[in-house]
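# step 3/5: fold
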Amino acid sequence: MTLQRTTPGNIDPITDEATGATVTYAPVRGVFTKIGTDYALTHEVQAGDRMAVIDASAKPEMTDKLVIGASALSIVNIITVNPAGTPVAYKLQVRGSVDDSAYGGDFGNTAPTRTINGGTFDDDDFGVQAPMRTVNGGSF
């Protein structure tokens, strides 16, 4: 995960275009978690929103993007976790689509062999413990 910050440059008065913008990147460690019910009831949450918890090595801003793989997610809300007055982590409500291969699930299409992040495995390496089933009346 990386925080991407774009600092606008100057506006050219003749062309009315921004010039000289700079983009900086700050690598962070973090995980995705589910958005809890209590949070969802008190904040504007859209379908597909996710919660990312990142370390406090870089302070995020609302204009930053959280970059994961080839995907850049918009930051919708920032909650600072500072139990003793010093930030130790940040909870970010993020929005946008994420390339699933960023999570390491890059499966090839050739059966019976699959590829995950460059490694090749036979179908026997992926034993199914229980068949997939629907929950609460859902369907595939």
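# step 4/5: annotate
The chain is about 5% helix and 40% strand.
# step 5/5: archive (pending)
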